[in-house]
Design the sequence.
């Protein structure tokens, strides 16, 4: 039987297996003429979307399982498509990539991949990566993906055949399947036979949390650089395997908007991005304009949005030799919704995403030589920039092997070479110890990305930022680091990295086991012991004791376990699982009598308790910040998190919880009588942890005595109205930006004697700062754990006025309230999941409350 007939038979069999009626014509069911705005001849053997769905794309919102089923069927029916699983989401949904090209290219796909990964791209096809709906409720992209893939696989158009001969198209049809599923089920649940365009209808107003985010409520479009989630790690691994020439990043925006494509605001491009990138983006934009003009669809570019933060899908490629392009379609947020431009339908939104997908491909086909040369020249220029850079390397260190491991793992995933310092290095009397120090040389392929990760820029051409203005990774991890010149670099001895494995330094006669709280995951290990019924204590003051014949110093916060014979094997097993991999050393003590400091039976040795936290969530609460708490405790520390709606606070029985956690949000107004149970819970031993705007709510409800000098909510358009009238109206947006702190890095100074700082040995602690909330100075002693430094700005943008207001005001406050405690974070200590430096204060707040 001829191959074509076999494929036709296979397509028919697949259709029957998915329960699709074959009696409806393709044109009636698929509406292909509408989506492609033309009549095209298709290979009848290639599986159509309706063959899997039973309806046209746009009639309902695709679920991830339906998208997966279609792409499997498409790959089975076409020799131009290969489907690969790249990973799994938090909810274990497959992450997939469809490789679409000529059969000849796909036959040597592995060979091409190796060449491109090694940047030997002269003789390889170019690569175009189209990624859809990283925000799960921006669904027109994910629903456009099957149509784009089908046309590429089935179309008989000559230009498509030429495109596939010269390019490999990678389609990532659902960057965020968990969020996509949440949203699709919501809007499909409320769809009737008669579409309702009313914006107030339930269909257009998702329940909390929205489908924008992933399982842990993180924005995956901010995670390309940070790599805190499996979805991001999978797509970035794919990116480095293929080094795409163009990356299309498909989003949605407000219903009353039109269509946006890059270039964005010229003054908001990151200066590390070459100007040629902006020029190519502008050339490609002409193809988008032509496609949307043909459809008579209004659009704009060079306004809104920016290309500054390299952690976004449309900007990450720009520092990696590709051209990233952001697309933003006005969203129906359902199937049909009223807008100022008339009723906006879901199929209309999908059609526009299909149109710009193909305009991107047309541009890639026409500009293939320019794109190939740009990528080649980009890496050549990076090499030249590294050669003339007076700084040749970066050395960094920490006393905490766990934070070092987490940081180095991010560098490695970004193809950045790191070596381990083997002999002490000293620069201006500043010591970098061996084995706990590492070296990154700038003269490598990822020079630009290294610069982007480590720089502390504080001056900008444009002070308006769509996202953060600083993200310096070593500051987020609270690492000690320094740029080195050529002479200094040459003086550093380094070698391949050896794993930070903990040591078991315990003799048979030892009665107590001790481990340092310096390690970020020390309390994770301690909590695992507690959950298994193994008691853990903490020393609130330092002491000296003997370990294998040597006198060692044990700082305040040291964790102690009585060496019970019947628990010894279980303890060792738990250490092998939770301690050794993180570099936690277990040291045996043969006596409770210390040579200096407290003895092990001292009143200053307290029992540690396993926390049982309650996190307030729901409408009004920041899902980002609630998700960051959930992710930290659940994924990193193995602590189960109870969650209840903030709207029910007055009725919640708090008696079964050790901690109440309130992140930024709008909490319900309660009367004093309704607050009595909360206040009583605190005074009877409950521990309250609050951050950002939750502090304002607590202050107004007189639950805390802390006052605010300036509230975050005043950072609004009202501030612009205070601008002196002599400034022209054209400066209004700039004046507004000057009053914002959208995301900068500030230096705080710690009280290292406070129990919340156990395990932190550096007085300066960087924090991410967003908003202009300022806490009033505290007159009482012992309450301020951290305050902003006099010269606080370390990286990013903040106006002089804001810097002056914030300087030396409290950043972290903690105090007892009868038997309970209150901890206040003026900033978000867990920002985007990668701020492990300030996260240590938060974790300490779950275990060391009784110490103060």
Sequence:
């Amino acid at each position: 039987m001829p191959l074509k007939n076999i494929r036709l038979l296979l397509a028919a069999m697949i259709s029957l297996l998915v329960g699709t009626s074959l009696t409806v014509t393709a044109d009636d069911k698929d509406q292909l003429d509408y989506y492609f705005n033309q009549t095209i001849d298709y290979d009848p053997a290639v599986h159509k979307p309706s063959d899997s769905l039973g309806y046209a794309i746009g009639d309902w919102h695709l679920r991830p399982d339906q998208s997966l089923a279609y792409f499997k069927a498409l790959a089975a029916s076409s020799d131009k498509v290969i489907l690969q699983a790249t990973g799994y989401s938090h909810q274990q949904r497959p992450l997939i990539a469809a490789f679409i090209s000529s059969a000849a290219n796909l036959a040597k796909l592995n060979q091409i991949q190796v060449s491109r990964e090694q940047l030997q791209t002269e003789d390889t096809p170019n690569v175009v990566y189209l990624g859809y709906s990283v925000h799960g409720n921006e669904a027109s992209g994910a629903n456009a993906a099957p149509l784009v893939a089908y046309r590429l696989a089935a179309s008989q158009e000559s230009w498509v055949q030429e495109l596939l001969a010269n390019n490999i198209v990678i389609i990532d049809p659902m960057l965020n399947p968990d969020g996509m599923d949440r949203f699709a089920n919501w809007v499909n649940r409320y769809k009737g036979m008669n579409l309702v365009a009313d914006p107030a209808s339930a269909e257009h107003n998702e329940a909390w949390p929205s489908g924008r985010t992933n399982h842990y409520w993180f924005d995956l479009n901010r995670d390309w650089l940070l790599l805190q989630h499996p979805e991001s790690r999978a797509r970035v691994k794919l990116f480095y395997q293929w080094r795409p020439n163009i990356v299309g990043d498909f989003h949605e925006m407000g219903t009353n908007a039109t269509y946006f494509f890059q270039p964005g605001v010229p003054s908001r491009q990151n200066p590390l991005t070459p100007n040629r990138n902006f020029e190519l983006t502008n050339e490609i934009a002409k193809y988008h304009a032509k496609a949307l003009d043909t459809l008579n669809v209004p659009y704009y570019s060079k306004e809104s949005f920016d290309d500054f933060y390299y952690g976004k899908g449309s900007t990450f490629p720009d520092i990696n030799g590709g051209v990233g392009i952001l697309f933003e379609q006005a969203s129906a947020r359902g199937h049909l919704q009223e807008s100022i431009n008339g009723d906006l339908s879901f199929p209309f939104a999908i059609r526009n995403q299909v149109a710009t997908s193909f305009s991107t491909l047309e541009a890639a086909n026409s500009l293939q030589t320019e794109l190939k040369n740009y990528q080649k020249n980009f890496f050549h220029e990076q090499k030249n920039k590294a050669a003339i850079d007076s700084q040749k390397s970066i050395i960094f260190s920490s006393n905490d092997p766990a934070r070092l491991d987490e940081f180095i793992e991010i560098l490695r995933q970004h193809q950045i070479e790191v070596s381990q310092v083997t002999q002490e290095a000293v620069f201006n009397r500043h010591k970098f110890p061996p084995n706990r120090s590492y070296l990154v040389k700038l003269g490598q392929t990822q020079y630009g990305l290294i610069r982007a990760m480590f720089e502390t820029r504080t001056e900008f051409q444009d002070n308006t930022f769509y996202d953060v203005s600083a993200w310096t990774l070593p500051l987020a991890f609270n690492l000690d680091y320094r740029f080195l010149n050529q002479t200094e670099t040459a003086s550093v001895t380094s070698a391949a990295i050896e794993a930070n494995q903990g040591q078991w330094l315990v003799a048979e006669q030892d009665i107590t086991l001790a481990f340092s709280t310096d390690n970020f995951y020390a309390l994770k290990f301690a909590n695992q012991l507690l959950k298994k019924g193994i008691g853990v204590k903490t020393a609130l003051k330092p002491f000296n004791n003997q370990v294998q014949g040597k006198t060692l110093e044990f700082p305040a916060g040291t964790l102690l376990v009585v060496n019970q014979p019947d628990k010894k094997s279980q303890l060792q097993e738990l250490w092998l699982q939770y301690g050794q991999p993180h570099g936690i050393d277990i040291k045996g003590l043969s006596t409770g009598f210390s040579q200096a400091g407290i003895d092990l039976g001292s009143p200053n040795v307290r029992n540690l308790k396993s926390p049982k936290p309650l996190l307030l969530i729901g409408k009004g609460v920041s899902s980002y910040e609630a998700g960051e708490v959930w992710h930290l405790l659940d994924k990193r520390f193995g602590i189960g998190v109870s969650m209840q709606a903030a709207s029910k606070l007055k009725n919640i029985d708090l008696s079964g919880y050790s901690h109440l956690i309130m992140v930024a949000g709008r909490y319900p107004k309660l009367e004093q009588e309704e607050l009595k149970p909360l206040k009583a819970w605190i005074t009877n031993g409950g521990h309250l942890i609050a951050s950002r705007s939750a502090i304002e709510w607590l202050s107004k409800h007189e639950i805390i005595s802390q006052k605010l000098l300036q509230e975050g909510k005043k950072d609004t358009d009202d501030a612009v109205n205070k601008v002196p009238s002599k400034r022209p109206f054209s400066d209004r947006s700039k004046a507004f930006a000057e009053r914002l702190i959208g995301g900068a890095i500030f230096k705080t100074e710690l009280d290292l004697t406070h129990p919340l700082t156990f395990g932190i040995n550096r007085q300066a602690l960087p924090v991410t700062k967003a908003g202009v909330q300022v806490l009033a100075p505290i007159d009482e002693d012992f309450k301020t754990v951290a305050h902003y430094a006099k010269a606080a700005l370390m990286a990013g943008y903040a106006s002089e006025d804001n810097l002056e207001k914030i300087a030396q005001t409290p950043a972290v406050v903690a105090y007892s309230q009868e038997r309970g405690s209150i901890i206040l974070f003026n900033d978000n200590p867990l920002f985007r999941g990668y701020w492990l430096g300030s996260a240590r204060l938060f974790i300490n707040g779950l275990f060391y409350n009784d110490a103060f």
